[in-house]
Structure formats: structure tokens, C-alpha cells
Amino acid sequence: MNVAAMLRRPTFWLILAATLAFALLPLRGDNVGLREDLLLAAVYVILASNLNLMIGYAGYVNFGNIVFFGLGGYLCVWLVNSHGWPLVAAALSAGVAVSFAALLFGLGILRLRGAYFALATIGVNEGVKAFVVNFSPWGGSTGIYLSIEAYKPLGGPAKALWTIYFLMIAVMGLSLLLSYGIKRSKFGLGLRAIGQNENAAIVLGVPTRHYKALVYSASAFLPAVAGALFFFKSAFIQPDDAFDLVLSTEAIVTVMLGGQGTVVGPALGAFLYEELRGTLLTSQTFSSFQLVIAGVLLLLIVLFLPGGLMGWIHRRWPRSKQVLE
Amino acid sequence: MTALLELHGIGKRFGGLEAVADLSFTLGEGEILGLIGPNGAGKSTAFNLINGVFRPDQGRVVFRGEDITGLAPNHVVRRGLARTHQIVQPLAAVSVLENCIVGACFGRENLPLRAAEAVAREIAEFVGLTARLDEPAGQLTIAGKKRLELARTLCARPVLLLLDEVLAGLNPAEVERMLGVIRKIRESGVSILIIEHLMQAIMGLSDRIIVLSSGRKLAEGRPPDVAANPAVIEAYLGDASLAEALHRKA
Hints:
The structure holds two protein chains of two kinds. In chain A, helix 12 crosses helix 13 (264-282). The mean pLDDT of chain A is 92. In chain A, 75% of the residues lie in helices and 1% in strands. Chain A has one domain: ABC transporter involved in vitamin B12 uptake, BtuC, CATH 1.10.3470. By secondary structure, chain A is mostly helical. Chain A contains 16 helices and two strands. Chain B has two domains: 3-80 and 159-249, Rossmann fold (3-Layer(aba) Sandwich); 91-157, no CATH class. Chain B has ten helices and ten strands. By secondary structure, chain B is an alpha/beta fold. In chain B, helix 3 runs parallel beside helix 5 (142-155). In chain B, the strands form two sheets. Chain B has a six-stranded mixed sheet, sandwiched between helices. The chains are: A mainly alpha, B alpha/beta. Chains A and B meet through helix 8 and helix 9 of A and helix 2, helix 3 and helix 4 of B.
């Protein structure tokens, strides 16, 4: 795609501004509480934005999308713990490895369509989880603990947490740019053709098989890096946390809430959902109630707002399509 | 006349049904070849075998001297063989313009987005869709959708065009307009293989006609000869007086 043309679009600058705001806001007064809150929001945005490449662009519902996050986390923690790799190298390698695995898996399971594909993706997540539970080098069902030594190269735990935060925000910014770049490219047009009518797309010449595998692989890379950072920060990873289908489902809800197929929508949905979730989790009456809310939200969106928040905004103010893509 | 497309004994079975059997024919460069036959004769299946939607059980498909048997549809269109669908297949939520851009992007010339848009606008003008460019394709009338089907395939800059009942469902004025477009396409040097039920139209348009019945080739020849062929009249036209009327027309 044309980079110069992209620089002239408001959406590009909006992505940059939002990323910068995330990075700078907690710096004021060393606000660790806000930092932790925004870190989690960033994780949700990363998951939603990359999942949107599959759901919103190619029209394939990946129910087991969390497998990328979990596998990235495991690879990174293992490389750091057992092989003494530095964080950035471990996280990037985890991303590349997971992305490559997704490419191979994708060529297989993307022959399936609709509900069968969605079921297969759950199968992938559960299969990988079952493998990890039985894989002793990764600690089986007890998982892997990182020793405090792991944070030494980053200047100790307190400083490391800030570094991880900034890296996570960078991954968030890259996720949004990737989504935007794909949307405005020939690749993105081909994906949207697939999402609309796959049989017509292939007859029109879209290399559907390769495109689907490619986008599946692309949607795996940054979530895997995010998982790597997240579990390095937790200093602990176990199968139940890494391959949690609840988070997978929440990612789908956030994509639908914000508006599938748009660049800004999934990020907006993820941010709003995470803030709501945070409020509910900390309230006495509603602890763990967020899943009920998520379920009701999904139902309401599918029934009344199939285009999500962005769909509603675009309908209400048609000119906003130029600014908020 | 050099052969552009050659079918050598292609066949396809669906379970117990022999949809196409031992079908062979040749289409020359610059030719309009009509494919007719009663419903279920295997015409659309033949198209699907040619452009790779289905892989034939037997036989070979040769396009511009290259064996393209079993090649996936996206590879076939890249080689310059594009097709329309009998049942229109618009990318419904995407604009008419973007539908055409998809055709140009992934067609024979494999264009980048911007160049594809220029081609898309030019072709939309040619088929008369310019006023509808920004509308979602799903909102077009049936005639509009038929024209969009044609436009998208033309955006691929094909050498050979397979047209599957592009006239069905159109009113007489729209049929006339579409026929004009098809003639212009041929004049631009594109060869055409066309399936059509509208006898009058296909008899007037085609250089040669092939008649299919139950998946097999029943007759082949110039329109008047085919219309006069007793086997064709019996198996397909049924009504001898209609046949006579067509004969006069042709």
C-alpha cells in the first residue's frame, strides 16, 4: 500500500495519538495503578484488533484465538527461564514461531467454513492446552515460575514493569497500524471479498487459500508477542491461564461491540469493555459478573447493532467514515 | 482460426448423476460460441469444469495451448479466462466500485489498487454502472447485478469470457442493452462462450452453437443448421413450430 497516502489519513494520526496517550498518561506522578489498568486494556485491544483481521476482514470466527497469546507466553517464559534469553529476543521469537505454526495450521483448518471452522479453532486451543498439560519441560499442569533473576537485565522488577508496559503499548500501536495497513491494501480488499462471498472471490481471482492462511498467521504474531510480555510480567504461566477460552470469548465480544471490519472499532470496544470489566470486578456485588454482562452485550449487539458502535456512528454521521475508519 | 479453448472428453459425475459426459469442443480466437440445452443439461457444470470450480473426472481442458485441467479458479482467471455466474454473486456489502476493483486487482493483469481503480471506473462506464459506483452492490436491481457480474469479469481483462445466462431475468429493453454490450466486448477482441436460454438472442449472437442434452453433446454447428437439426428439435426444442420460427429468425 501507499505509505504517503496513509500519512494523510486522520485514522493514522488517531492511532498514533492514542498510542502516545497510553504511553504517557501513567508517567504523570508515577501512576502505577493507572499503568496496570492501561496494560490490561492494551492486552484487550491487541487481542481484539488482531482477531478483527479474521472476523471483520476475512469473515472467519476464530473462537480459539487465545491459543496464540498462551503459546507466545509459554515460549517466551521457557526461553527466558531455561535458556537465559533476553526478553525482547524471546518475545519476538515466540511471535515468529507462533505465527509460523498458525500458517501451517491455517492451511489445514481453513478448508473448513462457518461453524465448522469456529469449532476447529476451539479444538486447536484445547489440543494445544492438553499437549502443554502433559509436556514436562514446560512444567505440565503446574506451569513455569520465573525467578526474580529474570528481571535483573531490565534493571530490577520496578523498572522492568515500566519497560514491559512500554513494549506492550508499542505492540498495541503496531496492532492498530497492521490492521489499518491491511485494510487499505490489496490484501485487505481480497480478504473482504472472501468475507463477503468466498466462492465469488476465488472465481474473481482472489487466492483465497493463501490469503486465509496468511491472515490467520498475521493475526497470530502480535497476540503471541503480547502473551510473551504478559506472562513474563506475571512471572508465572500455567495452562489454565494461558489457554483461557473465557478471554477468547471476551475478545469476540469486544470486536462485535466496537464494530467488526473497522480499524478503530475493535480497539474502542476492547477499551470500553475492559474498563467496564474492571469496575465490575472490583465491585462487591458484581464480582465475576462481567461474563453475564458479556453474554447479554453480545446478544444485544447481534440483535440490534450488527455493525457495533462504529457501525452505528457511521450510520448516524456518514462523514465520520473518512475520519474513523 | 487458431484454437483458444479446447475440451478433450471432459466428464463429471455427482453420485449417480452423469452431469457432463465425454464433452469435446474447440473455441476459436474471436469467436462467440453458444452453449444451449434444456435445464439440467450440464451447461453450468461445463463452465465449472472449465474455470476450475470443479475438477473433471476425465478429460483435459486446454486454454491457449496450456493444460489448465483442475487448476483452481483464481489461477484460471489469472491466465485470462473469466466467468460470470448464472445466479449473481455480488460482494453485497462492498460498493459497486470495490467489486470491480477486486476483479481488476486479481485478474489477468494482477494490478495494484490504484491502477485497478482506474480500470474499474473505465469498465463501469462501459457497462453503464457509473451512476451506481458508491452504492453497496447488494442494493442494485437484478439488471444492475447482472451488469456488475459482467463488469467485474471484464475488469479482469480476459481473453476469453464465459457468460452464464447474463440475459435471464432482464426485461426486453435491458436485454437489448446487454446484447449491445456483449457485441462491443467481442469487437474489442475478447472471445466469448455463452450459455443462454433466450433462443432469439443466442441464435443471433453466436457464430456457432453447441447443444447439450443430459450432459452430452447433441449437436454442433451454425445457428440455422442447429435449429433445423431434427435431433435438437426433438430433444430440446420439442415444439416443431417454435423450431421453425427460430429457423426463420436465424
